Every structure is written in structure tokens, then in C-alpha cells.
Prior knowledge:
The structure holds two protein chains of two kinds.
Chain A: H1 2-16, H2 19-45, E1 50-56, H3 63-72, E2 76-81, H4 85-90, E3 99-103, E4 119-120, H5 126-148, H6 152-160, H7 177-211, H8 214-219, H9 224-260, H10 265-279, H11 282-310, H12 315-341, H13 346-353, H14 358-365, H15 376-404, H16 414-422
Helix pairs in contact in A: 1-9, 2-9, 7-9, 7-11, 7-12, 7-14, 9-11, 9-15, 11-12, 11-14, 11-15, 12-14, 13-14, 15-16
Chain B: E1 2-13, E2 16-27, E3 31-35, H1 42-49, E4 57-62, E5 65-66, H2 69-72, E6 76-79, H3 91-101, H4 106-119, H5 135-147, E7 153-157, H6 165-180, E8 184-188, H7 192-198, E9 201-206, E10 209-215, H8 216-222, E11 227-232, E12 244-250, E13 253-258, H9 264-273, E14 278-284, H10 288-296
Parallel strand pairs in B: 3-8, 3-9, 6-7, 7-8
Antiparallel strand pairs in B: 1-2, 1-4, 4-5, 9-10, 11-13, 11-14, 12-13
Amino acid sequence: MNKISLIIKREYLTRVRKKTFILSTVLFPLLYLGLIFFSGYLANTSGPKLNLALIDSSGYFTKARIDAANQKDSFTLFTLVSGPAESVKNNLKKNGFDGYFIIPDSANWEKPLKNITVRTIRTLSPAGAAPVHAKLNSIWNELKNDQLGIDADKKRILETSSITIQTADLENKNSQSGIAGIIGSIAAVLIYIILMLYGSQVMMGVMEEKTNRIAEVIVSSVKPFQLMMGKILGIGLVCLTQVLLWIVFILLIYNVTALSGSGDAMSGMVGQIQKIFTGTNMTLIVFCFVFYLLAGFFFYSSLFAAVGSAVNEDMREAQSLSFPLMMPIIFSMLIMGGVIKDPSGPLAFWGSMIPFTSPIIMMVRLPFGAPGTVAWWELGLSMSILILGFIFTSWFAGKIYRTGILMYGKKPSWKELIRWGFRKN
Amino acid sequence: MNILELQHLKKYFASQKAVDDISLTAVQGQIFGLLGPNGAGKTTLIRMITGIFYPDEGQIFFDGKKFDPINDVGAIGYMPEERGLYKKMKIGEQTMYLAQLKGLSRKDAMARIKEWFIRFEMESWWNKKVEDLSKGMSQKLQFVTTVVHHPKLIILDEPFSGLDPVNSNLIKDEIFNLAKNGTTVIFSTHRMEQVEEICDHIVLVNKGKKILDGSVKQVKQDFKEHLFSIGTDAMPELTDHAPFSITGQKDNTYIVKIKEGKKPGEILQFLLQQGADIQSFNEILPSLNEIFIRQVGNTPAARQFETI
């Protein structure tokens, strides 16, 4: 036992002391936050400002209406022009327009106005066309209101009298499925990234030992299984350190901004986070997150270690051999959307039971509520299967590792690896 | 006292009988040469002695007791042919780590590492990384990591490859020193002149079987062809009752083969009686190199795969 702790210590210290560890620990959350803010910023501000010429043959679209609409919504600009379509079209650039459209004289306020074609110089994406669509509709509604004699008061009644519904299951007073989905996918993405990054770190570490030929020196002092487990546990601790640092980091930002309480974007986010903390069983989720992260890591990393022990220097060999291991991890991400839609359906259930996908899929389901969406027995069963799973994979991988680490030459196939794994003695 | 005793060791792999019934004994303080062509099974044999492989059959006794890999590896030092150290790890830390893996406490390890580093003039290396070292330097470091825990048995696989004569001698002296202080050294190599110089006892393996076992002197005696070289200006005419026959001549040196049942003294006696002027007379013993080639030379250079 003493020897394995020496190995763990070495693996841990050499990694934690590296500059890349410190950098990635600090930079990753910053990058992640930056990405969220940046994409939000992009979505809010930089929509293309369209200036469209409007040729009205129906007489419904008066200059007053269009000006009022332009004032309310300045993302797109409509300008009433007269004259034949052909000349407007030819002079678009000269007059500073991006495009034009025609309201036909057949337009009738009692009937829907269909198939207005907006012709633009540059191709307009569906997302780019949406504001045009919305603006036209609001003008059209305004027009209908006027024709029907609905004034501002009546309009307010119309708009506020809609029915809203809320979903709640039997155990939880209210399940906030939107927030649950967000927490679930954040947890899933984190586990996905960590499994991939740290899994391949284990693989690279084993490959390094094999190609440096230090493995033979070490296995003459300790058992190969101890060397493998020491490496996995050491790297697992590094991973845990990083995640705990991130959690501390988040709590720190949360407290600091909550204290300052200013109305900037940060505290808006904090308000959101606060809502999440109060709305869900955060203790359970954090506990399960750490459990599934570590158990999933142990489940996969011993297999990654086995692959690392089987290949030689060649990175391509390692990639082709480790691809089958990455498949189920990627597959979990693919079915995540389906699980969020129906967190208690059969896909979600089986996904959270099978140990290849359960670390990610169970974390997607859990925020929807336990014991509401995920029954206690399901959670217990899933955890037990995963624990049994990683005991099996480390036993199995240990045997592959023992053979592979001292074997040089041709890259074995998965079939051969499995034969090594099931060989007696 | 026997430090190591192997009894009928066997290890079969899927396509090869790597070690096929080998027994041998090494006593305390002996420098033991383990010889054999490439692929003879030396590495497999060594891996069983170091506890990396379990034998399929047979017994290993270490220091008088049945070999217990988990506890006994602390008393064994092994330097594999393919050297291995962590390239990115600092040298001091690395030596400390390997010494602790052999079961030394931090304090003991520190004292012994310092002692060796001073002896090999490596003190300034402590905070350097292995990747900064030349091949010869890392070889010295590897040797230190092999012996730092004062093992009872040291196994060196080609310890001199890549070393210049000065550093070779340094390590050779240390090997003699260790043996004098009671450490058994198993020395695996292809370099026969080094074996002749260093080893007390040799074992030759080929195709997984032991084909020779004995002291260097004894093996040479066993393989001698009863040849003598005689330096003389004029070889007298040989009569029927001359105790030898001439098999070769180069300038003034004659190679002669002694007849069955005759003694070397009789050759001299005969020559003196004939009035020959003898400048030199000595027995020609085969070098280990010749014995090696004679013993394994007729087998195919590459070992063939076989089905078991």
C-alpha cells in the first residue's frame, strides 16, 4: 500500500506543479464565461441592420404607420417609396437600400397577407429575415386593430388575458425544467470534457512510461497493477483538485458579486444562479456530480490505460485504438437532447443505467428532481452498476496492461487485447 | 551461501518456449555471467528472477527461502537493457522516488543517494532533468538507481553499452567492489571479452535451454583442443614417437596438437632432446568468444516460431 501511495504522490505532484495545470484551471472557467458572454453579446447587438424599401400598392401602409413602427423597432428600417418596382430595384444601391418588397394591391385586411417576397442584395438567412417578419406583422396587427376599432385599453385586455401554465410533479412543488435542463447539460458537458481530457492523459502517461522503458524498472519494484492504479488514482486526484478549485471559484464570484449587488450583467447571472440554488437540490447534485465524475473517470481511465500499454510510440496507433472508447462518451452527448426532452423515458432510464453512458446521462436527469424524475432505487442501482463496472474494467484492463506494458512491436488489435484480458493467471 | 537458486524453470509463450527447464545457482559475492544469443530467453529468465513474470513451472529460491516477489524485490536491483527514466523529472527526485519504491525510507534514501552522487561526481545534477543528460551520463544515473538500495542481488543487462572507457572502468570497479562486499551480480551481455575479464561463473543459454554452466576457467578447460603454440627458429623432424603433431605454422610460431595421453612436459622434453631452440611455449585455450560461437553458431541466427 505504501508503494502505491508513492506512485500516487508522484503522479499528482508532477502534474499539479506543471504550468499547464495552473493555466488551465484558471483559464478554463474564464474562457467558458467569456464564451457565454461573448455569444450573448453577439446575439444582442450585431444583428444586421436592414434598410428595406417598401412599395405599397394597397394603400394600407401609410408613412405614419411605418414611421411609428421604425421608432419602436430600429433593427430594421422600412422606407416607403413610390414608383415602378423595376426602377426601385435598379437604384437600390444608389439609394442606400439593402432590398425591397412589394405589398400587392390585392391586400385585404380581413384576410391573411401571404407570400410577401423580400428581395435583398445579399442573401438573407431565416434568422436575418425574422425581424422583418415580426415588424411587418406588428404593422399588420396595428392596422387590423384600427379597422376593428380596438383602442389601447381593449388591446391591453386582449394581451393580458392569456392563460399560463406551470408544470409540477407529485413530489416536488415545482420542477423548473428549463433550469434543470441547463444544469444537466452543464454538468454533462463538464463530465464529457473531463473524461476525454483526463482519459487521454492517463493513456499518454502510460505510453510515456512504456516508450521511456521506465516501466520495466518500476515493475521490478511494484506490481504492474499497482503502477496502473497509482497512475489512475493520482490523475483522478488532479482532476478532483481542478474541479474543486472551480467550485470554489464559482462560490467566490457568487459571493463577491452578491455582496456588491450592482445591477450589471454579472449580478444578473448571479441572480440566475441563486434561483438555481434555491430551486433545486444543489447538495445532492454536487455530490452526485463528484461521484459520477470520479466513477466515470475510473471506469474509462483504466481502459485508456490498457490502450496506452498496448501501443508503441505512434500517436496514430493510440488514436485508432482509443476511438472505440470515445464512441460511447460521444454517444452520450448525442442522446443528451432526447434525455432532456423526456427525462424519465426509456432512453433516459437505460442511458443512466449502462455504465458506459451513465456518468453523463444520469447527471442530465438528476437536476429534474430526485426522487421525482429519478427514483432513489434508480440512482442507487445506477451507482452500484457503475462501481461494479469500474471494478471490472480495472481488473480487465490490469491484465491487458500487464501484458502490454512489456510488449514491443506490432500494435495488437482489440480482439487480441480482449484475449489478453480474459487470459488466466 | 546460495543467494539464488533456480530449479527447472519453465516459461512458455504462445509461440515460443522462452525458458525451457533451466536450473542454476548463484552464490553470494559471485559475478555471474548470463550469456546467450539474441532471443535465447535471457530477458524472460531475468524477468522471472525480478518478479515481473511468474514461471509456468519450477521453483525460485532467493537467499535460502522460496522467492516471494512482493517482499524480495527490495533486495534486488535490476538494470534492464533498454534504459528507462522519466525524462521530465528532476534527477534528485527521480532517484529518491525509485529508491523509495524499493522500500527505503526517505532519510535512508537521501543518505545513500548523496553517497553515490559524491562517488560518481554527480552532485551538481540534482536539480537537472534527465533529458539534459548525455547517454553516458544517464547510464551512470541508471546504475546508481539500480544499486542505491544496497541489494543482495544485482542484475545488469548490458551495463556498459554507450559508456566511454573511463566511465566503463568506473562502473566496472564498482561492480568488483559490490561483489567484494558480498553482493551477487548477474551480468547479461554479448561482449565476451568483458565476461572473461569480470565474471567468475558463466551460464550459456540457447533456445531456452541451458547449454553450459561452470566457472570461466573450467569452461575454457572443458573446451580446449589440446593445442600448444611453440616459438622456435627450427622445428626438428618429427618421428613416430613424437608426442604431438603440427597443425599450423606462422613465421616462427608453430601450432601443435598433443597426442592422446601425453603430457605437455613430454613435448618440451622431446624438443629439447632434438636440440631445438625454444623461445616460447604455451597452451592455447579457447576464448569465450570462440566457445560461444562454437556452441550456438550452428543454430539459425533468428529463432524460429514454433507451435507448442
